Amino acid sequence: MLNKRDEQRSRILIMESRLLLGICDPRGILRQGECYVRVTMDVDGQPQTLKNAEVLVTRNPCLHPGDLQKFKTVHYPELSHLVDCIVFPTQGKRPSADMMSGGDLDGDKCKEIPYPCILNFLTFAVVFVCWDPDLVPSTVSEPAEYPAAKEHVTFKAVTEEDRIEFFARYSNASLGRVKNLFLDWARLKGPMSAECQQLNRLFSQCVDGNRIRVPPQLEDPPKPGPDQPEFVLDILHESGTQIIKNRIDFSENTYSFDDMQFLLSKNHVAMSEFELILIALRWCAANDYDFVDLLPYFDFNSLSDEQKAWTLGKVPPTMESSCLVMNAMLQSNLVDSQELSQFKLHYPGLRWKRVFDSSRDRMGSFMSATNQILELFHKKMIILKVDQRLTVALYIPNKIEKRTESVVDSSVRVFALPRSQGSDSAQYRVVPTKKNYRVYCDDTTFQLYNDKRADTWIFLNRAAADRSSYQNIPSRGDQRRQKQQTIDAGINHEFVASIALNKISEPIRRHVGRLNRAGIQAAVCILIG
């Protein structure tokens, strides 16, 4: 609830919500008051369309109650390729985005809340999708008018000097002042008061870079009286202040190595990875401990390039530490440095970056993540643990368009890492594809094959689940937990793999046996960063 300058912030977590980009209807089939929303679900990582639901939408700034507008979600198969965005109609008397703070669709993010859903008093441009009926407002206000500020009329062509002068004169320095005055008047009379709405219009002009003048009668709002109801932001601010006052301060001298090991090995900590590194460095300095020994505990994949370089400056310049910090593949649980060194994939100059890891991400979203990196990036690698005795990796240097048979010829490499003989095994293989090889992928399937699908090398698809142990449980939450227990026990799998091991090597095929619809136990997707 507080920032570093002790200012108020109201960030309230709403579990069933989405941050979406607003776009216009590319086909012109949505009518006024309708919208199309298709989002990726947390449960299984699959996209789902909201149908016949009321949706509340707003964007930043949101100072007028009418900046929150209600739409009805409809389903059109023609728009099903648009995922994790909200599609607004192009029909009607007034653009939908303009009704929310006078906005447009030039790349701004919107706040969206499917009705039955959300919100509190928010000041950030985010999109929410909720199904909590307790948070549904019964009515919404009429949208405010946001006329453009008066400008000098000219009939000459706009020159480069005109653009330079416009940007030089652009200023939104009064935004904070107007916002604070708005909050002060809202405490006294509410956001629908005449004072707040006058400040709202000034705020809108200030966002556009226009110079404004606050009327004298709005400059000094009176202090709330003793009988005035307490403002909700003040209540949240006081609560956040008390939490900070009552926190336990960290002292490096009071923690043992076991305590630090426990802290650094926790999966969910309310601080960034770089903050953990700073704490560990202070602890090492206070306790005369070598920071290099703690490097394997950190997720360097989450650091920026500047933070990685800063961290490397705190350790001796060795190949091992440089590789660990700069090459995310070395932090994968599926391969180790000795295995990677056999294929020359362990060097720090290979700036591999993990974008999916089943140890921290839901395995149910594996295929959607794979589709995304295949379509957007060139150099990527997919690592799969398909058996206790075998890990397989695919290096694909081509962009693969979704739902399209893409010709890759001899560019793909398939790595096989048998596990029963250790990292010094002579059975490690890397095999290239040949001419006429193709790759196909969609939301449920990945297939690598030679010209015809009957000659498939690697086939990945979503597994059919055995629902007998949880299909009759009434609670959806309990169903998800029971389903996860069946996955952890090896009864069910999110995805399965069928691999023609004889295309890799005959000794590996004899060692592992037939690999048909084998459950994928773990997966990692990595790309060159």
UniProtKB/TrEMBL annotation:
Pfam families: RdRP
Enzyme Commission identifier(s): 2.7.7.48
An example Gene Ontology biological process: siRNA processing
Origin superkingdom: Eukaryota
GO molecular function list: RNA binding; RNA-directed RNA polymerase activity
UniProt GO cellular component terms: nuclear RNA-directed RNA polymerase complex
Top enzyme category: transferase
Catalyzed chemical reaction(s): RNA(n) + a ribonucleoside 5'-triphosphate = RNA(n+1) + diphosphate
UniProt keyword list: Nucleotidyltransferase, RNA-binding, RNA-directed RNA polymerase, Transferase
UniProt xrefs under InterPro entries: RDRP (IPR007855), RDRP_core (IPR057596)
Residue spans crossing the bilayer: none
Residue ranges of every copy of the RDRP core domain listed in the record: 7-231
The family this protein is said to belong to: Belongs to the RdRP family.
PANTHER family per UniProt: RNA-DEPENDENT RNA POLYMERASE, RNA-DIRECTED RNA POLYMERASE
Protein name, as recorded: RNA-dependent RNA polymerase
Organism of this sequence: Patellaria atrata CBS 101060
